[in-house]
């Protein structure tokens, strides 16, 4: 754990295109999950509660 910085420095840095692809992939997954969760929450709450 103490030499994680050395490991990080010695690692080959990913190219910008790889970073963008990874970030975009994460964004797509997160936005999909967010939308899915949001819809499920909306469907759980009744629109016009009778009581």
UniProtKB/TrEMBL annotation:
Protein's UniProt name: 39_t:CDS:1
